[in-house]
Write a structure and sequence with these properties.
This protein has 713 residues and is an alpha/beta fold. It has 25 helices and 28 strands. Strand 15 and strand 16 form a beta hairpin.
Length: 713
């Protein structure tokens, strides 16, 4: 499956009247191209035709019914991405068919579309008996959005004397109208329907609107461009967002549910946060932005390692934080992810020479040093200084931090050919070894991990004195910046640091080359084929099952727990018998039984619960038992928490259940539920990190555009 969390493909736009009519020019910022229009000219996508999966596959077009609302898009980026990835998986084109809200279901029943999107489970219609909804893929609520420099709205009474703007057609309008009539003195403004979400946000920033009521499902995509704004008070209960298909389209309904079950989990893997260290500690997670690289971050036999990763994991331990890793494909993307709130620290051996002053970024103290080194072929004559570069063809990867250094040398009059290679350092090294280029440049710290001698390469000479490596954070995150500096001051060249540095950089050789390690990013476990097969069979992402298996047994088929659980999936005797498994040492049968059991657990939870939470409930039940999980849900409800959300809700009830208490003078511990909370969080972290590693590998294998420019920041 081709997934790129930050890349949104352009869908096909058509009107409800037919493909040849002029399409909407700015719907969701994806106009219809003439080329696609020509390709679909002979396909009747808006007539009364069958809307079952077989018919959809035959015509290779999925017709998406969506409500037309002037210039506003009712489909969020995440929903659009889910649809595009589903279409991509089945080799389908997307055709957007516009309809008035009152006609959506009628058009679906009459065969003018295949699936209704952009709606909740309770579409207001007299034809609900003709519909069936998919699993809930998101929850949506209306929130107050305000400027950061205004008093935060925490309760309804805080709206007194304030002006709140909203779309009249929004579900929250009636509620706001009632509020404006009562004693709090709130003034309600109507946002014209032709004003887009983007322009609405701009009006809040400029002060034209004091406050707005905004659908939370669109918040993430707008917040990346609106740092000055914050979401505060929730005005409505959650709406369960789901897709609707005809009741006759049972096969389409089943396939969409299977897709959502295994796919939607990963779309929550990079939430947007801009906050500083105190809030990071509240979340319990610090997010590192880096690349898949032997000296930065990679995996071996399911274990996540790398110098940058392990060093920052030490920092995280000191602050009782978990580490999430956001893998970028280029240095440019690293900083884009930082600016968009997708991560907290850029950690990728950033040498000082490549770091320009930027008011949005702060760099830490140096935590490592390395010199740029000229690399050439072993069989060629040794060169000893910059004068010997004359006449040479020198290539650097498109993201090499030493590009600017080499450019300056060339501008000083050294007549060599400098070539920007559109690939990673490993590929450039191979091309030098094969004679495509004469030389390249890499950091001295990378030489050992790339085993250049084994490739027929050698170090020629050092270009400069060692350059400082620094981490980067957002400029406004002063507390994080200061705390990282204190960590570096305390740890640099200390015992832990030296051991870690020696592990990656100071030993004479590694058993595996760069290519070996990066290629193994797609081999997360020794049983990957079996895992993929049974994950697909039962509707899971294979990387989630791999993360669970690693947590349970470290892939050891002979593993035994104190509770009597056995095998790679650590099934108890009772569960193994229930699943028909006789030999827990049989890896394939154990994986089949374990994944089938997880599927059964997932199916026991209410289908209206958000897919992510049903999945985490199932994972928690796998560890603690279904009955105990249901007790935790009931306790969460008593505590005033959301019984249908795992993180920060039911998991808190689990922690409370884990506390010992006295009964008849005896100390009683109800359960070891705290272990379950840790268990789920560790699996989630590993799962998300597996996703990023494998997707980076897939992207690295695709041809890159020559238009990509070097990013020196």
């Amino acid at each position: 499956m081709k997934i790129a969390l930050l890349a949104f493909l352009s869908p096909i736009l058509v009107s409800a009247e037919g493909i040849n009519k002029q399409p909407e020019k700015n719907f969701c910022n994806t106009p219809l191209s003439n080329e696609i229009n020509q390709n679909l000219k002979n396909i009747n996508i808006s007539g009364n035709i069958e809307n079952g999966m077989e018919a959809i596959l035959d015509r290779r077009v999925l017709r998406v019914l969506v409500e037309k609302k002037s210039s506003r898009c009712v489909v969020s980026k995440i929903e659009k991405q889910l649809l595009e990835e589903f279409a991509d998986e089945y080799n389908l084109k997307l055709a957007w068919v516009f309809s008035d809200s009152k006609d959506l279901v009628i058009d679906l029943v009459r065969g003018k579309g295949d699936v209704i999107v952009g709606q909740s489970r309770n579409i207001s219609t007299d034809h609900n008996d003709h519909l069936q909804y998919t699993h809930t893929w998101a929850n949506s609520e209306f929130k107050i959005v305000q400027r950061n420099d205004t008093s935060r709205i925490r309760r309804v009474s805080d709206l007194a004397g304030r002006h709140v703007a909203a779309y009249k057609a929004s579900p929250v309008w009636e509620y706001l109208t009632e509020l404006s009539k009562n004693e709090i003195g709130m003034t309600l403004q109507e946002i014209p329907d032709y004003i887009s979400h983007k322009k609405t946000m701009e009006r809040v920033k400029s002060g034209q609107y004091d406050l707005i009521a905004f659908d939370s499902i669109f918040l993430d995509e707008q917040r990346t461009l609106n740092y000055e704004l914050q979401a505060s008070l929730s005005l409505t209960n959650n709406r369960s967002m789901a897709w609707a298909v005809s009741r006759n389209s049972k096969d389409l309904h089943k396939i969409l549910n299977q897709y959502l079950d295994k796919q939607h989990l990963l779309h929550g893997s990079t939430s947007i946060h801009y906050d500083d260290l105190p809030s990071i500690k509240q979340r319990g997670v610090i997010r590192i932005i880096t690349d898949a690289n032997p000296s930065h971050y990679y995996q071996s036999n399911g274990k996540l390692i790398g110098f940058e990763y392990e060093l920052l994991r030490e920092y995280a331990k000191e602050n009782q934080l978990r580490v999430d890793v956001v893998v970028a494909n280029s240095r440019k993307e690293m900083f884009e992810l930082l600016f968009k709130g997708r991560g907290d620290i850029v950690a990728a051996s950033l040498p000082s020479i490549s770091l320009s002053h930027n008011s949005l970024i702060k760099y830490t103290k140096p935590y490592d040093y390395a010199s740029p080194v000229i690399i050439g072929r072993s069989k060629d004559q040794q060169i000893i200084d910059t004068r010997d570069l004359v006449g040479k063809r020198i290539s650097l990867s498109r993201d090499n931090p030493y590009w600017e250094h080499m450019t300056r040398l060339k501008n000083q009059g050294y007549d060599f050919e400098l070539i920007e290679e559109d690939s990673d350092i490993a590929t450039v090294l191979l091309k030098v070894a094969f004679g495509v280029y004469d030389l390249t440049v890499m950091g001295g710290h990378q030489i050992r991990s790339n085993r250049i001698e084994a490739m027929g390469l050698k170090t020629e000479f050092i270009l400069s004195e060692p350059l400082a490596h620094r981490w980067a954070v957002r400029a406004k995150n002063n507390k994080l910046h200061n705390d990282l500096n204190m960590f570096i001051k305390n740890e640099y060249r200390g015992v832990k640091y030296n051991v870690l540095h020696a592990k990656y950089f100071d030993q004479p050789y590694l058993k595996e080359s760069y290519n070996d390690k990066i290629n193994r990013a797609n081999l997360l476990s020794p049983y990957q084929d079996e895992t993929k097969f049974y994950a697909e069979k039962y509707g899971f992402d294979w990387r989630l099952i791999t993360a669970l298996m690693f947590q349970e047994s470290r892939f050891n088929p002979n593993a035994n727990s104190y509770a009597g659980a056995k095998g790679v999936m650590q099934l108890t005797k009772t569960t193994a018998k229930l699943m028909g498994l006789r030999d827990t040492r049989n890896v394939e049968k154990s994986i089949d039984a374990g994944v089938r059991y997880l599927s059964q657990l997932r199916n026991r939870f209410d289908k209206t619960i958000l897919i992510n939470d049903r999945m985490w409930f199932a994972v928690a039940s796998y560890n603690s038992g279904y009955t105990r999980l249901k007790r935790a849900q009931a306790l969460a409800e008593e505590m005033g928490l959301d019984k249908n959300k795992w993180f920060q809700n039911v998991e808190l009830a689990m922690l409370l259940m884990a506390k010992p208490y006295k009964k008849n003078g005896k100390k009683i511990r109800d359960c070891r539920c705290g272990q379950t909370v840790v268990y789920v969080r560790e699996i989630r972290t590993r799962y998300f990190n597996y996703i990023r590693l494998t997707e980076t590998q897939q992207l690295a294998m695709r041809p890159m555009s020559r238009k990509t420019k070097q990013f020196i920041n």
